Structures are given as C-alpha cells and as structure tokens.
Amino acid sequence: METQISKKDKDRIEAGIQGKYTKVAKDPEGLFKYPTGKNGLEALKYNPVLIQALPSSVAASYCGVGNPFSIGPINNGEAVLDIGCGAGVDTLIAAMMTGPTGTAVGIDLTAEMLERAEKNLNLTDLKNVTFKKSSGEKLPFEDNSFDVVVSNGAINLIPDKTATLKEALRVLKPGGRLMIADQIMVGQLEKDLKARIDSWFQ
C-alpha cells in the first residue's frame, strides 16, 4: 500500500493530520471514540502514582489509544524516544520513570501539539525532557541513541510505516525495546485509494 501513495497524497494526509491535531492541542475531549484526559490514563491503567504527579491540566491533554508502558519497564538512567508525542504526556511520564539521570525526547510534526507539549513541560519540574519537530519516517538522531522507543496511536497515521519502524530500530541501542500502542484495522481494506486517504485522519 505504501508504494501506491504519491507525494501529493502524503501531503494531503499530513495536512489533514495537522488540521485535526491543531484542534486536539487545545482540547482532545470529544474528538475521539476512546477516553482522553485523566479518565483515559486511568482507564488504560497508567501508574496511579504517576497520574497523580501530573498537573491536572497536563493530564487533561492526554490522548492515546493504549498504554505503551504496560509492555515493559522504563529503568533509571535510560534514554527514551516518544514518536508522535502529541501534547507530551507519555514523554513526561517516561521522564519521571527514567529519573534525572535519564532522558526523554518527544517528536511530533504538528507545531501546535509541540507548543502544548512545551507548555505542559513548563508546568512540571522535569529537567530531562526535550521536544523536537520531526517525522517518524526520518529521525534526526544518531544510530544506537535510545534504550527505549515508545509510540502511542501515532504510527497508524504515518504513511510509510516500514520506514518508521526501520528508523525506530536504527536509533535503538543493541538490546533496546520498542513499545508501541496503536490502532489496527479490522475488516476489509478499502480498495479505493482516494477513499482510504480521505478517511486516513478521521
């Protein structure tokens, strides 16, 4: 499927995602079929101690389809990359888990989401977090840079998933962990490419 998507189609997908997630940056409530905000964190069984440690407005900006941290631990001193970080809630949680000797980096393509992530970071005392504008298809990091790569509901939106997964594996250190929570399609794939692209970011 990925080879069928032209640059024009990719531009349409990116524009649609930018439009939707500009709204999400302000308030995700009501824009998804699953719980968001603090209710979403609780429903997905995030560590309640970490939920309580988040300022209420930070927790309210959470938008994720699952809990990538349920797959395995984040250890003290580790370097974590969050692909498609959105408002940065998972990035901040990873930073709390890895502690002051570790680092957490979030990347996203939507400027408004990154702006919200920076505002959320400024509401905390965390000093080990950075955010960058980047696509998962081409990560701006050296090989073997991270102990853990996480992603929550983002890779399904990226047109070239193969490139994204290759990039994630490239930046992982030997023995590193890839922890993804995402949506999958159930049922028949829409045969019409235009229809698929039109519904890509719905």
TrEMBL record:
Entries under InterPro entries matching the protein: Arsenite_MeTrfase-like, Methyltranfer_dom, SAM-dependent_MTases_sf, UbiE/COQ5_MeTrFase
Gene3D superfamilies in UniProt: Vaccinia Virus protein VP39 (3.40.50.150)
GO biological process, one term: menaquinone biosynthetic process
SUPFAM superfamilies: S-adenosyl-L-methionine-dependent methyltransferases (SSF53335)
Domain Methyltransferase: 75-195
Gene Ontology terms, MF aspect: arsenite methyltransferase activity
Signal sequence bounds: none
Keyword terms of this UniProt record: Menaquinone biosynthesis, S-adenosyl-L-methionine, Transferase
EC number(s) reported in the record: 2.1.1.137
CDD domains from the UniProt entry: AdoMet_MTases
Catalytic activity annotation: arsenic triglutathione + 2 [thioredoxin]-dithiol + 2 S-adenosyl-L-methionine + H2O = dimethylarsinous acid + 2 [thioredoxin]-disulfide + 3 glutathione + 2 S-adenosyl-L-homocysteine + 2 H(+); arsenic triglutathione + [thioredoxin]-dithiol + S-adenosyl-L-methionine + 2 H2O = methylarsonous acid + [thioredoxin]-disulfide + 3 glutathione + S-adenosyl-L-homocysteine + H(+); arsenic triglutathione + 3 [thioredoxin]-dithiol + 3 S-adenosyl-L-methionine = trimethylarsine + 3 [thioredoxin]-disulfide + 3 glutathione + 3 S-adenosyl-L-homocysteine + 3 H(+)
Protein family according to the UniProt entry: Belongs to the methyltransferase superfamily. Arsenite methyltransferase family.
Protein name: Arsenite methyltransferase
Lineage: Bacteria, Pseudomonadati, Thermodesulfobacteriota, Desulfobacteria, Desulfobacterales
